[in-house]
C-alpha cells in the first residue's frame, strides 16, 4: 500500500470515527438514535458563512483567525445540540426509543430545510484555510499539509476524549449512565447534566467534522451532512451502538475500507461502493447482533 | 360473550367502509367544483392514502418503524415505467433494458400490479433478513436498505437512467383511478388487521419480551405484513410516477420517507383510521403551504413563504404531536359505526380485545 | 420524630395495583426487614421510596422533608441510598470507578478518600480487585460492591433489596455481617427486603410483613418465626 493511500485512509477513517462518536455518545446515554446528527454537521458548516442564496459564499464567522474560529464553531455545534435536547428531546424523555428516533428524523428535516430557506439549495464554494492545500513531501509520497493537520487533530481529539471519559467526573458519570441510567440517578448522578454533557460533546464533534469537510472539499451543501451521517451510522452499528471505542474502531475501519475500495474496485463498480457498505450494515446486524445492541436481551434470531 | 364478539367484528368491518365512503365523498365533492388544481390535489392525496395505508399495514401492526418503504415506492414506479413506456423512448432513455422489457407495452393497471409485485418480492427477500432483528436494529437496517436502493438506482444508469429523470410516463392517474387503488388498499389493510396474523402481530407489538417467547411466529407475521405492505407502497410508487409523468430516484428518497412517516405519526400509528386521517390532515396542510409558498395576496402586499418552509412546518408539527399527543390525532381509535347500527346492543364496558 | 415515614403510599402500574395505601415509620438507626411472598409489592415499595417509581398518591418523608415527587438523584442527594435488586453494578467500570460514581454530589470532598479506604477495609476483596472491571467479580463480590457503592454516597438511610438473592448461604452470612457492622459503625437507618424470615430473625430487627400491596403485620423479626403470620401471608387467611 502506498503511503499516499495510507494517509487517505487515515484521514477519511478519522472523520468517520469522529462522526460515529457523536452518534454513539448520545445513543449511549439516552438510547436515542440521532438522525439529526448529519444536520448538526451541516448547520456548523453554514455557520461559517453569511445567509444568502448566492452561489458564492461570503464568509462570516469563517473570517475569524483559526485559533478563535475553531472554538467558536465548536460552541455553535454544542449550542445547537443543547438547544435540540432542551426543545425536542427533553420533553420526550419518557418516550420509547422508537419515538425518539422518529423525533430526531423530524428535527433533521426541519434543520435541513431551515438551511434551505436561509441559504438556498445550491452548493456554495467556500475557501477556508486555502493556504493549507500545498503538498508536503514525506518519503516518496506527496501529502497535502491539510491532510496531516486533519490526522493530527483527529488523534488529539480522540486522546482528549478518552482522557475526558476516563479521568473526569462528567466522563465517569456518562459511562455509568450509559450502562444503567436509572442506577446512576439513584447514586445522585443528575440526569440533566449527563444528557446535556453528551449532547454538547456530540454537537462539538459534529462541528469538528464540519470544519474538516469544509477545509477538505471547499464546498457547503445543505445536504452534505446526510452522506457522512449514513456512514457514521454504519460505523456505530458495526462497532456496537453505544460503544464508544467500537464506534471509533469501526469508523476508522470503514473509512479505510472505502478509501481502499475506491482505489481497488473496478471503475464500473465504484459508484456502487456505498451500496456495498449499506449491505454490510444489514449483514453485521444479522450475524453479530448480540455484540451490537448489547442490552437487547430478547432473542432476535430463530 | 360470543355474541358481543360477533358484534365487535361487524363494527370493525365498518371501518374500511366508512373510510372508503369518506374518500368517495371527497372525490365527488372535488369533481363537482370542476377545478383542475383541486382535482390534482385530490389525486395526489389518494395516492398518498395508498402509500400510507400500505405503510401502515407493516408499521401499525408490528410497531416497528420502517424507513425503507419509500424504496418500495421507487421499485414500483420504475417497474411501471419499464413496462409501459414507448419502446422508442426506452431505447434512448434506458438502453440497458433486456429485450423483452424494452419491447413491453403493458396496460397501466397490469404495470401497477407488476410494480407492487416486484416491490413485494424484494420485501420478501430483504425482509427475511431484516425482520429477524429487534425493534431499533430493524429500523436502522431498513434505513440502510433505503440508502442502498437509492445508491443503486442513482448509479445503475443503463436500467434506471441514473440521477437524470425518466420522462414520458402516461399520466393516467385521475382522482377516480387513485380512489380505486386507495379503496383496495383500505380493504386489504382492514382484512389483514382482522386476520389471525394481524391480531397475532399486534399482540406482540407492545411487549418485546413476551414476543420473544413466540419467536418464530412473530417473525413470520412480520414478514407477511412487510410483504403485503411493500405491495401497496409499490403500487403507490407506480401511481406517483403516472401522476407526475416524471420519475427519478431522489423523488423516492428521504422527503417521501419523511412525508409518509409524518402522516402516520400525526394521524396515529395505532389505527387504520389514524393513517387515513394523517394523510388527509397533512395533505391539506401541504396544499395550503404550497399555495403560501407561491404567494398569497393580502390586501396590497403579497406574502410568500420561502421554499422549504413547508417541510419545516410539517416537521415541527410532527415533533409537537410526538411530544403532546404521542398516539396521534386519533390516538389509536378506529372510526366505526355504533353497535346498534350493526344489529346489537352496545356494551360500553366490554373490552374490545375480549 | 421518625427518620423515614410513609403515609398512604399507593403505586399502580396501569390497572395493576402494586401498593395499596400503606403507611409505616422507621426510627433513626432502626433496622427494618420487609418480607412477604412474590408480588407483595416489596420491591415496588423500595423503588417508590428511592424515586425510581412514581407514586399514584401518598407521601414519603425523610427528616420531615417530603421526598415523594422528587427525582431519584434529588432523593439520593438528601441522603437516601439504594442497593437494588439484581445489584445493578456498572459491569464495564472498574471496582474503584463503581465506588466513585455516587460521590459526585458530596460536599465533603476530603472524606471521599477516607471512605474508599474504609470500604476497602470492610471488603478486602474489593481492594484486591480495585482496578478490575466490576463485571468480572463473582455474585457475592458484586453484592458487596453494590453495598459499598451505596455507602459511598454517605447516606443516612439505606435501602437493600434482596441481598441474599442467588448467593450461597455462607456468602449471605458474610454479606449480612458486613452490612450490620457498617450499619452500627455509621449509625445508618436500614430497610432490607428479605424473603427468609429465619434469616431476618437471626440477624435481628423489626419486620414488616407484606401481602397484596399492604402491610399485614409489624413486629420483632424474632417473634415472627414462632407465629403463624408467615404462613398466613403466603397461603392466605388461616382457616
List the keywords.
heterotrimer; A: 302 residues; mainly alpha; ABC transporter involved in vitamin B12 uptake, BtuC; two-stranded antiparallel ribbon; 4 strands; 69% helix; 4% strand; globular; disordered C terminus; B: 354 residues; two-stranded antiparallel sheet; 3% strand
Q: Average pLDDT of chain B, to the nearest integer?
A: 86
What is the CA–CA distance across the termini of chain B? Answer: 8 Å
Largest sheet: spatial strand order of chain B: 1-2
Q: Largest interface, with Cβ-Cβ < 8 Å?
A: A-B, 49 and 52 residues
Largest sheet of chain B: 2 strands, antiparallel
Q: How far apart are the first and last residues' alpha carbons of chain C, in Å?
A: 39 Å
As laid out across the biggest beta sheet of chain C, the strand order is 6-7-8-3-9-10
Largest sheet descriptor of chain C: 6 strands, mixed
Helix/strand order of chain C: EEEHEEHEHHHHEHEHEEHH
- SS elements, strand count of chain B: 4
User: How much is the radius of gyration of chain C in Å?
Assistant: 18 Å
Residue runs with pLDDT of under 50 for 5 or more positions of chain B: 346-354
The CATH superfamily of chain C turns out to be P-loop containing nucleotide triphosphate hydrolases
Shape of chain C: globular
Rounded radius of gyration of chain B (Å): 21 Å
Second rung of CATH, namely the architecture of chain C: 3-Layer(aba) Sandwich
| CATH topological fold name of chain C | Rossmann fold
